[in-house]
Design brief:
Order of helices and strands: EEEHHEHEHEHEHEEEHEHHHE
Keywords: NADP, Oxidoreductase
Strand order of the largest sheet: 6-5-4-7-10-11-12
Number of helices: 10
Number of strands: 12
Number of domains: 1
InterPro entries: NAD(P)-bd_dom_sf, Sc_DH/Rdtase_CS, SDR_fam
Shape: globular
CATH superfamily: NAD(P)-binding Rossmann-like Domain
Bound molecules: nicotinamide-adenine-dinucleotide
Family: Belongs to the short-chain dehydrogenases/reductases (SDR) family.
Length: about 325
């Protein structure tokens, strides 16, 4: 593209600058007024079927919607809060490019083995296979306390949801994926193996490093990463890939409320995050889509830190 006086030269055709600017602005307006549709135009990269526990809210909801807009043929919106899951599933309909897209909502408590097993059975009986499984079911810290005053009750609750839940999720997603045929896609030089399925656990920057006063969260997120790596090594021979996405702060309702209640947090985050802002939900779900597609076909057992550079800094 060459800029000339009063014209923009695109492929050697002179176009008046005003027309060109109008076109760019209309594209920008279209993207802003149709954000999910715009995403589907930009990222229609997948087909297949997804299961997402925690899809009723926050990161899980955004990941489940992202599968729809990226071209999945079906998505299971699973959550302990079935009304929230139904609402998110309804929102996904008509958003994606797949002509026979189907969304279903399923009630699941990830701490209950029979619930998680039945979730995967329902997904397979509805769609025939599970290509992508993302676990974002989680709880927030209610009682921050230094180690000397740590609440055993809250510690056990975190281990129930974040650790037992992750184990059950990986176990039953794996059982379903092991039974299905691997998929391939055309690479540049040869056919590329996409494998039998992709499992993603939503960890945290606290899967790597602690912050003061939340041993229950930090320990549970470290354990989640341990399960992710174990599942990855056990599943590698079956070509099922398992990764964790490990964000720092993400703009969710929970985090917005925390910021509203404590305005000092804003300043603290600006100092702690080199990029000076927290992550958007779509900056997490876009990574889930990348790891699910051909871009992630040789990647397993890794924690993908999404933190705007937070973990690069030493406290001085
Ligand atoms: N928001 C952040 O800043 C942030 C940062 C790093 C990691 N994470 C992690 O991402 C995950 C999602 O967090 P979020 O901010 O989107 O939270 P959220 O509260 O918006 O969503 C969590 C969802 O999980 C569901 N859930 C809770 N317990 C469940 C259970 N036993 N069974 C099934 N579903 C259950 C909830 O109903 C809710 O819909 C959590 O694991 C969290 O630790 C969040």
């Amino acid at each position: 593209m060459v800029f000339a006086f009063g014209t923009v030269n695109v492929l050697l055709l002179p176009i008046p600058v005003s027309l060109f600017t109008k076109f760019i602005n209309s594209q920008r307006f279209w993207r802003q007024s149709n954000p999910q549709l715009a995403r589907s135009k930009m990222a229609a990269t997948l087909d297949g079927f997804a299961v997402v526990p925690g899809a009723g809210s926050g990161i899980g909801r955004d990941c489940a919607l992202a599968y729809a807009v990226a071209g999945a043929a079906g998505v299971v919106f699973a959550d302990i809060n079935i009304e929230a899951a139904k609402e998110a599933a309804a929102e996904s309909r008509g958003r994606g490019p797949h002509p026979s897209y189907k969304a279903i909502a399923v009630a699941v408590d990830v701490t209950k083995e029979e619930n998680v097993s039945s979730l995967m059975d329902q997904a397979v009986s509805e769609f025939g296979r599970i290509d992508y499984a993302v676990n974002s079911a989680g709880i927030g810290v209610k009682a921050p306390a230094e180690i000397a005053d740590a609440s055993l009750a809250e510690f056990e609750q975190f281990f129930d949801v974040n650790v037992k839940g992750t184990l059950l999720f990986c176990k039953y997603a794996t059982q379903a994926m092991k039974k299905q045929e691997p998929r391939t896609c055309q690479g540049c030089a040869a056919e590329r193996d996409l494998g039998r399925g992709v499992i993603i656990n939503i960890g945290s920057l606290n899967s790597y490093v602690p912050v003061p006063g939340i041993v229950q969260y930090t320990a549970a997120k470290h354990a989640l990463f341990g399960i992710t790596k174990s599942a990855a090594i056990d599943n590698a021979p079956y070509n099922i890939r398992v990764n964790a996405i490990c964000p720092a702060w993400v703009k969710t309702k929970m985090v917005d409320e925390a910021f509203a209640a404590n305005p000092a947090l804003n300043e603290m985050v600006k100092k702690a995050v080199p990029m000076g802002r927290i992550a958007l939900q779509e900056e997490v779900s876009d990574l889930a889509i990348f790891l699910s597609g051909r871009g992630g076909s040789y990647v397993t057992g890794q924690g993908w830190i999404v933190d705007g550079g937070t973990s690069l800094q030493m406290r001085t």
